[in-house]
Amino acid sequence: MDSPAAPVYSQPRVIRGKAVWIESVVDLSQVSLDMVTKVDEARFRALMQEHHFLGDAQPRGETIRYVAHCGGRWLALAMFSASALLCAARDDWIGWERGSQFSRLHLVTNNSRFLVLPGGVPNLGSRVLSLCARRLVRDWPLRFGHEILLLETFVDPARHRGTVYRAANWLCVGHTRGFGRLGSGYITHDRPKFVFLYPLHRDARRRLRTAHRDPGLHKGVPKMTLTAAQMRSLPDYFKQVEDPRRRQGRRHNLPSVLSLATAATLAGMRGYKEISEWVEDQSQAVLAYFRPRFDQGRYIPPSRTIIRDVLVRVCPDEFDAALRQWNEDHGGPDSALAVDGKTMRGAVDADGVQTHVMGVVGHDSRKSYAKKKSE
Question: Among candidates 103, 40, 113, 112, which has minimal Cα distance to 72?
Fold first, then answer.
């Protein structure tokens, strides 16, 4: 049965000094959904900034923007981007293991913004969310090379009750714990939000729990989560590594910089930018494990420039020896090892032989063993 026609309002006209919305009619079955192109991105962001109570959002990670329209009129806007790093209500509903969930977060996307533009069209919100769910199943693999299994969003009960999500058959699985991100850490704002989820596949929960058995869900490099004891121990293993920097101007101690870079790499970060962003995102409690510079009551993480300078100049053999010793002391047994080799373009040793690097990853623990130059 077709959806009934509903009123939609064009741009207001000024009549006798007052803005009056001129009503027309739209058939919800004729509403279309398109990805926002570069040409329309500025318009999308301007409307979001003007009408959404949170304003425009800077996309984090993989992001898709949608616009719902009918007869040339924009009716609603939606943005889907990186999922929350931690969310107890979501994680409990999925039931995945704490140590391996970070390698599966790319299978979840967050509806970070949803806006029905002024006009008051009945049932438009749930209609657009339904269209988004159908499109994401197709668009995400084409755009980013992997499927997604679950949608999430957070609703502030002080402003909304999540009625539009309930009408679109999203599941309310609980509340957040009332924390918000502030800079490189988190604060308590005492405003827990509803957590809504929408599985995109009938067996989404099972597949998220057992993603390691599904090669089609793997993406990027293996990741692992360090325990507090492992994080505390890392700086001690790098104390014997010689600091290549001059004593004057050393604002961050070498063991702290190396241990933070190591932890970021084990968490799946690649490149100086990703490593530095991971370091900056850590809370004060986590930074304390790595013993960075402490100034005016706060731990100060090293910048990307400092991390790059240290990693480029430190002796690779000493760094590798320290890391291998840490791995031997803290790594668990693996039934098998995954080995991958690469040829480094433009890297030639003193004998004129091109450099090859071999990486080894534990099959069971998913722990990354030190990269070694191979002969």
Answer: 40
